[in-house]
Amino acid sequence: MNLSYWEIKSWLSNIDYVIVGSGIVGLNCAIELKRRFPKSNILVLEKGMLPQGASTKNAGFACFGSLSEIINDLKSHSEDEVFQLVKKRIEGLALLRETLGDAKLNYQQFGGYELYMATEGLYELCCAKIDAMNALLKPLFNENVFSFKSNTFGFNGCHDQLGFNQFEGQIDTGKMMEALLTKAQKEGIKILNNVTVESFSERSGSVSIKTNGFEMVCAKLFIATNGFAAQQKITEVIPARAQVLITAPIKDLEIKGTFHFDQGFYYFRNIDNRILFGGGRNLDIKGEETTNFSQTKRIQDALETYLRTAIIPNTPFEIEHRWSGIMGVGDQKSPIVTQLGNNVYCGVRLGGMGVAIGSSVGKDLANLVS
């Protein structure tokens, strides 16, 4: 890259902290570092035109797990681990709302619902476990989280009772990221886009970074690339593509809230008189372990079929847009926030809960520095 003296001097010299990734985690890390060290020189490197991965591509669910998801988590986690996971998500959502304010997020708390499809057999399991799950989470809310409500939305092919969570909300993902970027820039944090970190190495008291356009040195490096963490040799994180579609506006749309079914593998919500619908990764788990942002016919056809037959069965609709995001998952649902070297740190593996825990993971990442 043909860089001038001025560009090198202003953007790439005397850098205290470099953060790789300008998503929810990366920007919150940068903002917290600036709060703690106001005189520090902070640079965020982002490989995309906009924050890549999932931060600007997620569905905007301010949620912490449906009833069946939490029941399923108990198969591989202890009760205390599940409690701590949910606690972390709730605290992260509170921090996000505190940091940006509900107006800038367009936060709305319509509640979260769970559909029990006829072929799943989950309704009976949830009925049997709901009291235990409410008891487990009651210390966090001082009241029951989960209940059942009648299906008044006209959903087809599912049980006439829906799981309900009064504490779930929804946000405008684009507004959230706009607000985070604005806040970071107002704090004097520099952000460079279309910069891919190809490698880095530590030397005494500093980190050398090689990108697709330049080489530089910083005092400390923070990796906040989540679904792309494996590209920075963090092998505990597996990429997981989430495919999404959105309809054109639908007249007199009465569906309001966040909705899940099939243990959270499918999810939909209202936004701007449209239905946003995503999921289907369970149809091809291995195939969706990719960082490719394309869509597949199998999953997109499944989403359209569910829309037509189950979600809005008596309503004509058009698909206006399709996209995909890349999450970071692994054997455990807890995020990885750790020190990798003397001056290298990472905050990754958000497990599809980036909106809920991204703010707190970013803050925790920054606080690894003493």
Would you summarize the structure shown here?
The protein is of the alpha/beta class.
Which structural traits does this protein have?
globular; 370 residues; alpha/beta; 9 helices
Count of helical segments?
A: 9
Helix residue percentage: 25-40%
Percent of residues in β-strands: 25-35%
Structural class: alpha/beta
Question: What distance lies between the first and last C-alpha atoms, to the nearest angstrom?
Answer: 35 Å
Shape designation: globular
- Topology, number of strands: 18
- One letter per element, helices H and strands E, the order comes to HEHEEHHHEHEEEHEEEEEEEEHEEEH
Please give the largest β-sheet. 8 strands, mixed
Gyration radius, in Å: 21 Å
Characterization of this structure:
- The structure is a single chain.
- The strands form three sheets. Strands 1, 2, 8, 9, 10, 11, 17 and 18 form an eight-stranded mixed sheet that branches. Strands 5-6-4-13-14-15-12-16 form an eight-stranded mixed sheet, with helices on both faces. The chain has a two-stranded antiparallel ribbon with strand order 3-7.
- The two termini are 35 Å apart.
- It is globular.
- By secondary structure, the protein is an alpha/beta fold.
- It has helices at residues 5-11, 24-36, 67-73, 79-100, 102-105, 122-141, 173-186, 297-311, 354-366, and strands spanning 15-20, 42-45, 61-62, 112-115, 146-150, 161-165, 169-170, 190-192, 197-203, 206-211, 215-223, 238-247, 258-261, 266-271, 274-279, 319-329, 336-339, 344-348.
- Helix 2 (24-36) runs parallel beside helix 7.
- The model has no long low-confidence stretch (mean pLDDT 96).
